[in-house]
Amino acid sequence: MKLLAVFLLYASIREAIAVTTNREQRRDTAAFDPSRYDSSDIIYRDVAVIGGGSTGTYGAIKLRDMGKSVVLVEKEQVLGGHENTYIDPTTGTPIDFGVQAYWNIPVVTDFFARFNISIGPYGFSGYSTTFADFTTGQTIPNFTLNYNLLTAYNDQLNKYPDLSWSWNLPSPIPDDLLMPFGQFIEKYSLQDSAYALWTITGGVTNPFLLDQVTVNVMKWLDHAYMDETINGNAVTTTKHDNGELYVKALAELGSDALLSSTVTAAQRPEEGGVSLVVSTPKGDKLIVASKLLITIPLLVGNMKPFDVDDTEENLFKKFHYSCYYVGLVNNTGFPGGYRYLNAAANDTYNIPHFPGLYFINPTIEKGIYLYWYGSLTDLTQEEIESDVATVIHRLSNSTQEPNFLAFASHTPFKLEVTADDITNGFYDQLYALQGHRDTWYTGAAMISHNAGVLWNFTQALLPRIVA
Ligand SMILES: Cc1cc2nc3c(=O)[nH]c(=O)nc-3n(C[C@H](O)[C@H](O)[C@H](O)COP(=O)(O)OP(=O)(O)OC[C@H]3O[C@@H](n4cnc5c(N)ncnc54)[C@H](O)[C@@H]3O)c2cc1C
Hints:
By secondary structure, this protein is α+β, with helices and mostly antiparallel strands. The chain folds into two domains: 37-80 and 258-316 and 426-466, FAD/NAD(P)-binding domain (3-Layer(bba) Sandwich), CATH 3.50.50.60; 124-231 and 320-415, Polyamine Oxidase, Chain A, domain 2, CATH 3.90.660. The protein contains 16 helices and 20 strands. The strands form four sheets. Strands 7, 8, 14, 15, 16, 17, 18 and 19 form an eight-stranded mixed beta sheet that branches. Strands 1, 2, 10, 11, 12, 13 and 20 form a seven-stranded mixed beta sheet that branches. Strands 5-9-6 form a three-stranded antiparallel beta sheet. Helix 2 (54-65) packs across helix 16 (451-466). The site of flavin-adenine dinucleotide has 34 residues, from helix 2, strand 14 and helix 16. This is Amine oxidase domain-containing protein. Residues 1-18 form the signal peptide. Keywords: Signal. Pfam families: NAD_binding_8 (PF13450).
C-alpha cells in the first residue's frame, strides 16, 4: 500500500514537471514568434554581434564595410568595453583611465584612420617614481624598475612565435609552458625582471602571478605587449581620448547598436540562422539573423540565455577569471611630480599580494590620479574606494579626504583555464565551436587581451563568417 502511494506521488510529480516544462517550452517558443511583435520590433540582419567592446565594435563596423547588415547588442550605455575616458568637467580634458595604448600595427592605424582620429606615440614622463609598500606606506629605498630587463623574458617568449596570433601550441606542449610562472622565472633566471613583469600584468590576479600557468602569462605579456613596452611601439590618440573611436563608431552604427540591452533568450538550431529575444530600454525586440558573432566573456552565467548545448557549456564552465578595477581620484594630498608603485617590502621579488593596488599615477590633468586595483574575488566600488583612500592617507601623510571622480569595473577579466585543461586540448575544442550553430566567437577569451591582436584575429574571422 505504502509502495503504491509512493509510486502515485512520484507519477504526479513527474506529470507536474512535464506540464511545467511543456508550458515553459511553449512560452519560450512563443517569444520567438514574429507575429507576437510589432513589425518595428523585429530586426532582420545578416549578423548579430553581441558585445560592443573593442572586438564587437570592430567586428560590427567591418561587417558593414563588407556590405553586411548588422545589429550590435551591448549591455552598457556606451560602446568601448575596457576603454574608459573621463572628461574633466572644468577643463574639458579627456583622461583615458581604461585602455591606454594600442600596438602600432596596420590593423590598428587603419582603424583609427577610418574614423579620421589622429594617433601618436604613447608615453608618460615628467615625474619620478616612488616605490612604496602600500600595506604600510613605507617607501622602499634604493629600489629601481628596469624595463630593459624584460628582454630576458622576451627571449623565452620568442621561442613560441605562434602564440602572438593564436592559441596554436606546439605538440606535445612543452613543460615550460605549463609550469607555474614562478618556476619558469627560476628556471630561466628571470628573477631580476620579475617585479618589472608584475608591474605590467595589470588585471592578472587569479591565480597570483607566480602561480599562473606560464602560457597564460605569455598570452598577456605577449609579443605585442613586449614590442610596445621594450621597443615603445605603441600609439594612442593625440587627444588622449580613446573613447572618441567608440563615440564615432556608435554614431555610424546608429540604431543598429542596441545599448543597455541584453539577450534574454535565443534559438540556435543546427543551421538556418539564429533568433534572439533582446531586452532593450524600448521593450523587447526580436532579432532574426543569419549569423551570430559573440564577443562577450564566455562564462556560463553570461552565456546562459544563448541556448548553449552541452559541448558549449562543458567548455565555458572551465573558465575562471580575475577581478580588476580602475578609477580616478583627486584631493589626494600628494605633493605632485610623483607616481606611486606598490612594491611589497617582504614578499618574493617584491610582488604584492591581492586585494590591492598596482599603482597610483598622475594623469595629464594636474591633481587627478589614476589607480588600478586587483582582487581575487569580486569587490564593490565602495570597498575598493575605501581601501584606496586608506592607501592614499598612508602614502601622503595627509588628512585630506580623497575625492573619487570615476570608477570602472573590468571584472570578469582575463578568462583562462588550468594547465590540465590546456593539455587536454581545451583551445582546440573551443576553436572547433567556430561556425557551430551559425555562431562565431572573437574577443579576449578566445585570443588575447591586446586590442591590435584582437582586431587582427577578428579581421581574419569575418570572411569565414560571411562566406
Ligand atoms: C584597465 C584595462 C586597461 C587595458 N589597457 C589596454 C591597453 O592599453 N592596450 C590594449 O591593447 N589592451 C588593453 N587592455 C586589454 C583589453 O582587454 C583589450 O584591449 C580589449 O578591450 C578587449 O576587448 P573585448 O572586446 O574582448 O572585451 P571588452 O572590451 O570588454 O568588450 C566586451 C563587451 O561586451 C559587453 N558585454 C558583456 N557581457 C554582455 C552581455 N551579456 N550582453 C551584452 N553585452 C555584454 C561588455 O559591456 C563590453 O562592452 C586593457 C584592459 C583593462 C581592463
